[in-house]
Amino acid sequence: MQCNRSTRLLIWALAVSGFSLVSSLAVRSQDVASPASADSAADVKSLAASVLQLQSQIQMLNSQMSELRAAQQQAVRDSQELRAELNRTREQLMGKNGEAYAAYAPVVAPPVTQPSPTQPSPPQPSATQSYGNPQPPAPSDAAPSSTATQGEGTSLDARIAQLEGDVSLMNDKLTEQSQTKVESGSKYRVRFSGIILLNTEITRGSVDNLDFPQIATPPTTPGTSGAFSGSLRQSQLGVEAFGPDIAGARTSANVTFDFAGGFPNAPNGVAFGVVRLRTGDIRLDWQNTSLVVGQDPLFFAPLTPTTLASLATPALAYSGNLWSWTPQIRIEHRIALSDNSRLVMQAGILDSLTGDIPPNYYRTPTAGEQSGQPAYAAHLSWARKMFGRELAIGFGGYYGRQNWGFGRNVDGWAGTTDVTVPLGAYFDVTGELYRGRAVGGLGGAIGQTILLSGPIADPATEIQGLDSLGGWVQLKYKPVANFEINFAYGQDNPFAGELRMYPASANYYGYLLSRNQSPFVNFIYRVRSDVLFSVEYRRLQTYPLYGNSYIANQTTMSLGYLF
User: Fold this and answer.
1) Of 108, 101, 195, 257, which is closest to residue 560 (Cα–Cα)?
2) Domains of the chain
């Protein structure tokens, strides 16, 4: 019994000792684990804070990236708009309305991606691009690569100067775009533009029009010494509107005026020119086709010499340059032959004008309109890039029936050729040639249209169309962007043999002219992008059918402000 009790006591003692030992180890293990747990918790908290901070930075970067992406997209859009604007300006600079000052005036072309198809364009917008659409010149015509440029010896300073000039131009364009625009009665954009032009002339000899002479006339006073004169009558105003898309075509319209419509019956009325309608049309421009309705220059004789001395009437009119502002409907189609060449086809109907002088207050049909049908015309031109500009060749044709009363019909017609040839980096040759009959209403034959065997009111009088041949050529030298010199010569030749066969025609025209020629030379300096200065010398020599020629000389100084 005592043994059993001792055994039990020993077992209990061992059990208590083991329990104490286990408890002690457990407590120790907790004491050792506590510091490790605390350190781990601190590390976790620090990591969480870093993650939150990184998350915040990532969100901020994403926000900044979105802003940069939006700014980049806006810059691309602004750049495309500015490029289209520059292309449209370049196109109209080539003479959208067939007027010399268009090469300098700010032209308003529809914010279309197409160029005004009527004229050769350089870019994707009107002057060129897919060459059926106005776009930038193809890579083959693009500026030489940096390697090529260095090969040509172009200095880094020169390239930096060029870049600074480009940046300045872009800044000017941005400033222009930020200007307050003209308010219109619709939600669509309207642009007001034009030129204020002061011309002062020194004239020696007698001319048909002191402000912008076209022919020399018999001296009104023997020994006349000439005259000094000045005028703002050739200033021009233009309004252009850009409308909605119709059937996939961009729509636009424009109208232009000057002050060469005559003089009021008032003291010093020579200084108060009367407003005159020049041109105005409505355009629908698709990618490769355009429909034009309105009053425009002759599209089958699209070129005109460069001058600031004669804007009211195109330079060399009645000296080989066919012209008229004629109501017309025409369609134009552009075909891209390659990246840097195109074909333009135009055809339309025109009001058949014959040069008749209308009564003051009421409208009667002209001899062309009396025929009961319009005149018809077509023009085909090919153009390609050369020396960064356009080499272009065009051929045109015109036909208009005329009824001079009592069943006396005359067929008026003309064939034309026009060329523009760049000669190296600084020179261009431009010119036109025509051969026609009964085209006095279009400036041909020095304004003489028909031949008569007697009084026009006599039904027995025979009437024939007068044949004529004429043309003009201009050499342009442009060493820098803001300065150019132009040499031009034009001549018109009605057939003298036909005039001699019908001497009675003198009773209708007052006198008969067999030849008119007019050379001129001018320089035009662009003081700023909107200020032009020019000096021009012109010599007029007109030959009557019989007798000596009439000679007149005129020196013109011009100051123009474009807006």
Assistant:
1) 195
2) 86-177 (no CATH), 287-550 (2.40.160.10)
Nearest to 538 by CA among 349, 322, 313: 313
Which one, of 525, 548, 421, lies nearest residue 479 by Cα? 525
Q: Which of 283, 284, 306 is nearest to 428 (CA)?
A: 306
Distance, in Å, from the CA atom of 360 to the CA atom of 357, rounded to the nearest integer, reads 9
Q: Model's pTM, two decimal places? A: 0.70
- Cα dihedral across residues 332, 333, 337, 340: positive or negative: positive
Gyration radius (Cα) of the chain, Å? 40
What are residue 327's DSSP bridge partners?
295
User: What's the N-to-C CA distance of the chain in angstroms?
Assistant: 133
C-alpha distances out from residue 297 to 270, 397, 473, Å: 27, 15, 19
Q: What is the pLDDT of residues 368-400, one digit of tens each?
A: 999 999 999 999 999 999 998 999 999 999 999
Residue 364 backbone phi and psi in degrees, to 5: -125, 155
- Taking the C-alpha atoms of residue 242 and residue 107, their distance in angstroms, rounded to an integer, is 13
- Please, are residues 536 and 234 in contact by the beta-carbon 8 Å criterion? no
CA–CA gap between residue 105 and residue 352 (Å, rounded): 30
Structure tokens at 443: 């400036």
Q: What is the full DSSP assignment across 220-276?
A: SSTT---EEEEE-TT-EEEEEEEEEEETTEEEEEEEEEES-S---SSTTGGGSPPPE
The percent helix, strand, coil of the chain (3-state, each to 5) is 25, 40, 35
User: What residue type is assigned to position 525 of the chain?
Assistant: Y
Q: Closest by alpha carbon to 303, among 435, 490, 445, 124?
A: 490
pLDDT 10s digits, 414-438 = 999 999 999 999 999 999 999 999 9
Structure tokens, 24: 């002690």
Instruction: Say which amino acid occupies 55.
Output: Q
Helix (H) or strand (E) holding 119: none
